[in-house]
């Protein structure tokens, strides 16, 4: 068994336990394997291990890996900061964008996409100064502005929790996002069904699952970190 298979087994156990604690079905949580720190070659191991939903945070990584894998074999999730001028590089490869937060990027998507792109709106739910994402009270007006956009569907909200050992702070951040997601879902906007919650990473995905995450983005726990060397 290679390292990725071994780590996958550990992660699956942790997901199953968290789902059980939360009274949720395992199938209600989708894992996005974040491959941003590994080569295309090692990404093949991730795909061989059975992951079909992969995440990249830089256009370069997405373009290289997106071109490498057969279209349809994997879905690419773009999870990094999106610049307007890079939208043209991202949308040929990405099925989902997790980090929409500006109208200028939305306009680029609208004018360049040939099919509907599923987007999560990124929220600074912890309200840290340094964090990207819209402030909580900016989210609804932002989404309402996208009503006439035909190539963009707001499928959910995304956040990153603060880097802290304090579980209560992490949990509160996820709760804030979940509350906001339910509020927007309840508006029943055609362009923004907003059913999903993209939250939880290697260090906090169990808390995220307990708080309702539907998409967890896992990098290090699956692929290791640079400093660990080769697998
Ligand atoms: C890198 C990254 C992840 C994965 O982080 P890990 O801690 O390595 O699991 C998830 N989401 C975003 C937005 C990232 O940039």
TrEMBL record:
<dbReference type="Pfam" id="PF01168">
    <property type="entry name" value="Ala_racemase_N"/>
</dbReference>
<comment type="similarity">
    <text>Belongs to the pyridoxal phosphate-binding protein YggS/PROSC family.</text>
</comment>
<keyword id="KW-0663">Pyridoxal phosphate</keyword>
<feature type="modified residue" description="N6-(pyridoxal phosphate)lysine">
    <location>
        <position position="36"/>
    </location>
</feature>
<comment type="function">
    <text>Pyridoxal 5'-phosphate (PLP)-binding protein, which is involved in PLP homeostasis.</text>
</comment>
<dbReference type="InterPro" id="IPR011078">
    <property type="entry name" value="PyrdxlP_homeostasis"/>
</dbReference>
<dbReference type="InterPro" id="IPR029066">
    <property type="entry name" value="PLP-binding_barrel"/>
</dbReference>
<dbReference type="InterPro" id="IPR001608">
    <property type="entry name" value="Ala_racemase_N"/>
</dbReference>
<dbReference type="GO" id="GO:0030170">
    <property type="term" value="F:pyridoxal phosphate binding"/>
</dbReference>
<protein>
    <recommendedName>
        <fullName>Pyridoxal phosphate homeostasis protein</fullName>
    </recommendedName>
</protein>
<feature type="domain" description="Alanine racemase N-terminal">
    <location>
        <begin position="11"/>
        <end position="225"/>
    </location>
</feature>
């Amino acid at each position: 068994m290679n390292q990725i298979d071994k780590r996958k087994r550990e992660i699956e156990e942790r997901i199953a336990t968290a789902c059980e604690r939360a009274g949720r079905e395992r199938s209600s949580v989708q894992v996005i394997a974040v491959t941003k720190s590994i080569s295309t070659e090692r990404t093949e191991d991730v795909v061989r291990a059975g992951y079909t939903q992969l995440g990249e945070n830089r256009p370069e990584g997405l373009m290289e890996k997106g071109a490498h894998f057969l279209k349809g074999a994997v879905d690419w999730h773009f999870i990094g900061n999106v610049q307007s001028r890079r939208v043209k590089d991202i949308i040929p490869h990405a099925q989902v964008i997790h980090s929409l937060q500006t109208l200028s990027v939305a306009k680029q998507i609208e004018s360049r996409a040939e099919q509907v792109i599923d987007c999560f709106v990124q929220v600074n739910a912890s309200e840290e100064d340094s964090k990207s994402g819209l402030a909580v009270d900016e989210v609804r007006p932002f989404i309402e502005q996208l009503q006439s956009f035909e190539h963009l569907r707001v499928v959910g909200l995304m956040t990153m929790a603060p880097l802290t050992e304090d579980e209560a702070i992490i949990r509160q951040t996820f709760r804030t996002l979940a509350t906001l997601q339910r509020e927007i879902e309840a508006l029943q906007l055609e362009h923004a069904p907003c059913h999903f919650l993209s939250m939880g990473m290697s260090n906090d995905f169990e808390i995220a699952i307990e708080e309702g995450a539907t998409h967890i983005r896992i990098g290090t726990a699956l692929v290791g970190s640079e400093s660990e060397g080769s697998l």
